[in-house]
Amino acid sequence: MRVVKSQLHSALDLIEAMSRAAAPAGVSDLAIQLGLPKSGVHRLLAQLVEKGWAEQDPATQRYRLTLRFALMGKRMLSEARVEDICQPILDALARETGELVRLSCVQDRRLAWLGSAQGAPPGLMYAPSMTGRIPLHATANGKAWLSTLPEHEAIAILLEEGLGDTGATGPNAMRDVEGLLAALRLTRDRGWAIALEEAEPGIVAIAAPIAPGGGVTIGAVSVAGPVQRIPPSLHENLARRVCEAAAEIADRWPMPAPVSRRTA
Q1: Which residues form the IclR-ED domain (predicted)?
Q2: Residues 170, 198 contacting (CB under 8 angstroms)
Q3: How confident is the model over 219-264, as pLDDT tens digits?
Q4: Cβ pair 136, 110 in contact under 8 A
Q5: Closest among 33, 39, 49, 41 to 10, alpha carbons compared
Q6: How far apart are CA 239 and CA 222, in angstroms?
Q7: Measured between alpha carbons, how far is 240 from 247 in angstroms, rounded to an integer?
């Protein structure tokens, strides 16, 4: 049984590594990343290819996942009616604010983008990538979620992610734990987070956590745009509207909330 479990874990780790890769990956690179023998990685890749979950580029001999994973996820979200329920709320907030609205969800001690709506007209849109890593310490979404966790758990996640090479390029990105803890406590007290030129220069974002039934936080919703269009005088009103949207999503969230693993 332990052998089967080990192979399953290795296969899942391999799939996760390939999903994070920006380009098709080679056997050697994947083996080094996962700390597995090349022969074992090659066997797992061959099985994924045989079942249609991965494919090999005949020119480079490198591997990538097929669309089966994306289609499976899309089908699951469709059957759960997540998009049907959340998208109108995102669209309404984008129209009202005239800025980019994004929905993130908690996945394996990280955040991933789940949806968005654009409120700015063409030519004025702030349109960042929706596929990149979300730096938890430098984004409003990240701080909104982390503020709902016990502090020891939030610190562990931050240290696991690292505060250096996370993709955050803003001049105000915090790099020390004490400063982040102070920001998380402020976020917890007022119920919303702000990232002012932290993830990237010239951009401000405000986010609120989404906690269905007042339980475990499953993600966050945010509004983001250029600092010139979202000056400090608008932050409080914008935060109030973001919190309302988060509460509406929480009230209508169609999927079971995860079981809390917090300790007393």
Answers
A1: 68-255
A2: yes
A3: 999 999 999 999 999 999 999 999 999 999 999 988 776 655 443 3
A4: yes
A5: 41
A6: 9
A7: 11
